[in-house]
From TrEMBL:
Cofactor(s) essential for the protein: Mg(2+)
Enzyme Commission designation: 2.7.11.1
Entry binding sites for ATP: K39
Protein's recorded name: non-specific serine/threonine protein kinase
GO biological processes: cell differentiation; intracellular signal transduction; microtubule cytoskeleton organization; spermatogenesis
UniProt organism field: Falco tinnunculus
Enzyme class: transferase
Family of the protein in this entry: Belongs to the protein kinase superfamily. CAMK Ser/Thr protein kinase family.
Domain of life per record: Eukaryota
Record Gene3D superfamilies: Transferase(Phosphotransferase) domain 1 (1.10.510.10)
Upper lineage: Eukaryota, Metazoa, Chordata, Craniata, Vertebrata
One GO cellular component term: cytoplasm
A GO term, aspect molecular function: ATP binding
Protein kinase domain: residues covered: 10-265
Length: 268
């Protein structure tokens, strides 16, 4: 692998992390004269539908995305030995899950600064007809103070009229909206909005809003609505935004455009 990548101008460095089907390594790009991240996928170790359905979809989508809050994919390389390498922009400061683990509940201004960037990234995606379908803290990386959304494995391009409903369960149960968990045909954009609510809750409370170890019980908790720990002193405006995002009825849940205009986010 090292020789193959070197021949393409990338000097491999340390391992940054591992996913279910991949290993991500740091590398130095001789062409760009900067460090990059390379996701290495071994075709032999992944299920057929990942190679034939999700991966081509991901590649098609990521090559069209260009936003400061989304990890840029520079190129894809295929080795003769059946490895696929995605050369990406590097985010050196970990993901926001680890950040919250380290820092504990974030003060509102810090949570707002991060969440605003997630809103920008998701707004750009939805506006381009792309739904992410796996929004979670581990997929929001940090480069200094800049949030960079990544992992478009489950992303989907919506048809031009954007009327398509989905039945597919994607992503993590802890971040899944009630309609997604129940397999009810749903608007995936509204599923993304729910997951953003879970992310905002984690930023502010450093814990999960719902316990996902028992799904029927979790569905019940979701219907009852979210409650925030009183001792954290979370403002009324922020609680209002959390309730809007974690609205169990998807038809009442706001679009990303409406979310972006919420007073908690437009506050200086
Ligand atoms: N562009 C990047 N810059 C820095 N680190 C990255 C980058 N992309 C991924 N990583 C690191 O590599 C790890 C594995 O990433 P990858 O996208 O392959 O899998 P995952 O999404 O975490 O797992 P899974 O595929 O099982 O959902 C991540 O947790 C992250 O820490």
């Amino acid at each position: 692998m090292e020789g193959f990548l070197l021949a393409h101008g990338y000097q491999l460095g340390r391992t940054l992390g591992e996913g279910t089907y991949s290993k991500v390594k740091e590398a130095f790009s001789q062409k760009h004269q900067k460090k990059v991240a390379i996701k290495i996928i071994d075709k032999k170790e992944v299920p057929e539908d990942f190679i034939h359905k999700f991966l081509p979809r991901e590649l098609q989508i990521v090559k069209c995305l260009n936003h400061r809050n989304i990890i840029r994919v520079h190129e894809m390389l295929k080795s003769a030995k059946g490895k696929i390498c995605l050369v990406m922009e590097l985010a050196e400061d970990g993901d926001i899950f680890d950040y919250v683990l380290r820092e504990g509940p974030l003060p509102e201004p810090r949570a707002r600064a991060l969440f605003r960037q997630l809103v920008e990234a998701v707004w750009y995606c939805h506006d381009s007809g792309v739904v992410h379908r796996d929004l979670k803290c581990e997929n929001a990386l940090l480069q200094g103070n800049t949030l960079k959304l990544t992992d478009f494995d489950f992303a989907k391009q919506l048809p031009r009229d954007r009327q398509e409903l989905s039945w597919t369960f994607c992503g993590s149960t802890a971040y899944a909206a009630p309609e997604v968990l129940q397999g009810i045909p749903h608007d995936s954009c509204k599923g993304d909005i729910w997951s953003m609510g879970i992310i905002l809750y984690i930023l502010l409370c450093a814990r999960m809003p719902f316990d996902d170890t028992n799904i029927p019980q979790m569905l019940h908790q979701q219907q009852k609505g979210v409650s925030v720990p009183g001792h954290l002193g979370i403002s009324k405006e922020c609680q209002n935004l959390l309730r809007m995002l974690l609205e169990p009825d998807a038809t009442l849940r706001p679009s990303i455009e409406v979310v972006s205009r919420h007073p908690w986010l437009t506050n200086p």
